[in-house]
Specification:
The chain is of the alpha+beta class. The protein folds into 4 domains: about 90 residues, conserved putative lor/sdh protein from methanococcus maripaludis s2 fold (Beta Barrel), CATH 2.40.420.20; about 100 residues, Efflux pump adaptor protein, beta barrel domain (Elongation Factor Tu (Ef-tu), domain 3, Beta Barrel); about 55 residues, RNA polymerase II/Efflux pump adaptor protein, barrel-sandwich hybrid domain (OB fold (Dihydrolipoamide Acetyltransferase, E2P)); about 70 residues, Helix Hairpins (Orthogonal Bundle), CATH 1.10.287. It has 5 helices and 19 strands. The longest helix is centred in the N-terminal third of the chain and has 36 residues. The chain is rod-shaped and about 170 Å long.
């Protein structure tokens, strides 16, 4: 190969390398932008809630007591079932109390006999005293004897009545319509005296239920002030109490506060509050624990964003905001309380801003992206317009 030919080939190879490099740089320059999902910042009228731990009680929780001692003879209900008012629940061996009644009947008969004799003696002494055939002291003694016999009859009748009442306590009836629990004594157990069961069971009326919870002094003052400031609004929506059950679900019927204790408990620094809820499906039972959520106030035009858009580092919160040129910028924000899986933003964002919701680890400050606008689907059923 001649020197001229070699140089020609070398020039051709250099030209091809230049063309290849230029094409590669051009391809790199026109590489597509990364698609990143973003959501639009919303504004809405937002209720602000306070949450407390409460316990569920029945509208009425009536203990079923053994009011006399004895051996349990019969149980006449199915545990956990509904019972009716005046339905027979338990019976206690009545024989000792029936014997007592019989003895009291005999006592009444005996004192009545003595009263009849005393009355006869008095009737005989009265005409004799008028004829001065007996002394005045004999007449007074006969009168006193009769009066004492009358009192003895009344006392004997009262003792008989007491014995009959005790005999009646051997049969125990339901005081209300409601649901009865598990029995604390079985047939053959001696009941009515500690340590043996005195309270045999409990019947609860659950068409309505009560949820009791405690507020600290500061919580009480905050809610009371908010209520006073927005009294008219509160009156429009009286059912402003919700309960969240232990499985995380929100009970579908809202309740109303129907009782606030007269004062603060000095030992705990808290005040007892009670809310009333309807329970038509019978889901709620006494003894359940629930999280009570009270709508304390409402913020108009509040800024809310999905909680997962927020990046937190050492107590400082920030989000990635997408500008009009599709450039990502990190922005510090000040946040408020959580609203389900949303969060209230106090400062830093405006309605209509676009913020990154997914793939936060893939973006960086100053990066250009291809934003894909999506609607956030709340898993806690929060909805904002």
């Amino acid at each position: 190969m001649s020197k001229f030919t070699f140089l020609k080939v070398l020039s051709l190879m250099s030209l091809m390398l230049f063309i290849y490099t230029s094409c590669a740089e051009k391809e790199q320059a026109v590489a597509p932008l990364q698609q990143i999902t973003v959501v639009k910042v919303l504004s809405s009228d937002v209720p602000i809630y306070s949450e407390f731990i409460g316990e569920v009680y029945g509208e009425k929780d009536i203990p079923i007591r053994a009011r006399v001692e004895g051996y349990l003879e019969g149980i006449y209900f199915e545990e956990g079932s509904e019972v009716n008012e005046d339905q027979l629940l338990y019976s206690i061996d009545p024989l000792p109390y029936q014997a007592k009644v019989n003895a009291k009947i005999s006592e009444v008969a005996a004192v009545k006999t003595l009263m009849v004799k005393a009355k006869s003696d008095l009737d005989r002494y009265i005409p004799l005293a008028k004829l001065n055939a007996v002394s005045k002291s004999d007449l007074d003694a006969a009168q006193a004897n009769y009066d004492a016999s009358v009192s003895a009859v009344e006392a004997a009748k009262a003792n008989l009545k007491s014995a009959q009442i005790e005999l009646g306590y051997c049969k125990i009836y339901s005081p209300i319509n409601g649901i009865i629990g598990i029995t604390k004594a079985r047939v053959g157990d001696f009941v009515g005296r500690d340590p043996n069961p005195v309270i045999l069971n409990t019947v609860s009326e659950t068409n309505h239920i009560k949820v009791r919870f405690y507020l600290t002094e500061s919580d009480y003052l905050f809610i009371a002030r908010e209520y006073i400031e927005e009294r008219e609004e509160q009156e429009k929506r009286k059912d402003n109490v919700e309960i969240i059950l232990s499985d995380g679900s929100t009970y579908k019927h809202k309740g109303t506060i129907d009782f606030v204790d007269r004062g603060i408990d000095a030992t705990t620094g808290s005040i007892l509050v009670q809310a009333d809820f309807t329970n038509p499906e019978g889901i709620l039972r006494p003894g359940l624990y629930a999280k009570v959520r009270i709508a304390a106030r409402r913020i108009e035009g509040a800024i809310v964003i999905p909680d997962r858009c927020i990046m937190e580092l050492q107590g400082i919160n920030s989000v990635y905001v997408v500008s009009d040129t599709n450039t990502v910028h990190s922005l510090l924000i000040s946040t408020g309380p959580a609203l389900g899986d949303y969060r209230l933003v106090k400062e830093g964002l405006q309605t209509g801003d676009m913020i990154v919701i997914d793939a936060l680890q893939k973006v960086r400050d100053g990066m250009k992206i291809d934003p894909q606008v999506v609607e956030f689907e709340s898993k806690t059923n929060q909805q904002f317009d």
